[in-house]
């Protein structure tokens, strides 16, 4: 089963959704999106745990690359995710 997650899982209006075959691949996509769109440097252990707990399993056919650089993402006033 594929692994998937969305910024909306955290109360964000950002429409980014990522999907990958493994959790490691998914985290690569999440980190890249967080850095390029939300200007996050890195995840704290607390945020990492919340993200990991929010990962869902299923079958994906998503085109998450469309959101990679923010074309479809809403950024908050300072370009960061809301507090988790």
The end-to-end span amounts to: 26 Å
> SSE string, helix = H, strand = E?
EEHHE
β-strand number: 3
> How would a textbook summarize the main sheet?
3 strands, antiparallel
Brief summary of the model shown:
This protein is an alpha+beta fold and 84 residues long. Helices cover 29% and strands 14% of the residues.
Word description of this protein:
With 84 residues, the protein is of the alpha+beta class. The chain has two helices and three strands. It has helices at 23-36, 45-54; strands at 2-6, 17-20, 56-58. The protein has a three-stranded antiparallel β-sheet, with helices on one face.
Task: Chart the SSEs and their pairings.
Blueprint (H helix, E strand, L loop, with lengths): L1 E5 L10 E4 L2 H14 L8 H10 L1 E3 L26
Antiparallel strand pairs: 1-2, 1-3
Primary descriptors:
84 residues, alpha+beta, three-stranded antiparallel sheet, 3 strands
């Amino acid at each position: 089963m594929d692994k998937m997650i969305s910024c909306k899982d955290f109360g964000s209006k950002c429409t980014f959704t990522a999907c990958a075959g493994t959790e490691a691949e998914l985290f690569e996509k999440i980190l890249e999106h967080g850095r390029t769109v939300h200007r996050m440097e890195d995840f704290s252990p607390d945020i990492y745990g919340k993200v990991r707990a929010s990962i869902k399993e299923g079958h994906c056919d998503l085109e998450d690359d469309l959101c990679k650089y923010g074309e479809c993402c809403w950024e908050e006033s300072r370009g960061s995710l809301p507090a988790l």
